[in-house]
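Q: Give me the 3D complex with coenzyme A.
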Amino acid sequence: MIQNAEVRVRKMTLDDLPAVMAIEQQAFSNPWSLEMVKKELTQAWSTVLLCEELTGTGWCLRAFAIFWLVADELHVLNVATDTAVRRRGFGRRVMDATLSFARTQRCVQAFLEVRRSNVAAQGLYGSLGFRQVGLRPRYYQDDHEDAVVMALDMKEPA
Ligand SMILES: CC(C)(COP(=O)(O)OP(=O)(O)OC[C@H]1O[C@@H](n2cnc3c(N)ncnc32)[C@H](O)[C@@H]1OP(=O)(O)O)[C@@H](O)C(=O)NCCC(=O)NCCS
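A: Here is the predicted complex, encoded as structure tokens.
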């Protein structure tokens, strides 16, 4: 739970690359490369949202979400929270902002894939209303783990 904290969500810029990459590399066994994240900043259909907390030294990146808006669909590609501040609500905050933004763009459905073993992420997405709609066997290239496909009907009231 984010309590007594000043928190903001904003779009990522090139200047944010080092901070985003630091979280990306600690969060995933097979992280996106810097070039992959950088490319998202150049594609019209892609958005990267950052959730920051005001600390004694200024605004500090806590979580981010990378997503695509394709026609009337939201595709969530990547979400991560700094390991030091997990379970404080930053993941939910950046996902709430992602869904709100997608609604303003008239998205009616959201999709994502998540590792079968990823209880934390499935808990987060489930708490936002996402439900399992499929399974992609051996989807991940590094270790062949299955992917759970989750979807959210955004036409239903939030
Ligand atoms: C998944 C992740 C983004 C969640 O971020 P977070 O900031 O810790 O999540 P929040 O504090 O906003 O939690 C929101 C909800 O998600 C669920 N959740 C989060 N962590 C959980 C855990 N370890 N176990 C079970 N449920 C969990 C809970 O429902 C939680 O609500 P609650 O705290 O009121 O019970 C974070 O664990 C992470 O960065 N993991 C590594 C990267 C990753 O797997 N990304 C997803 C790829 S698909």
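A quick observation: The pocket of coenzyme A is lined by residues 27-28, 63, 79-81, 86-92, 114, 118-121, 123-124, 127 (CB under 6 Å).
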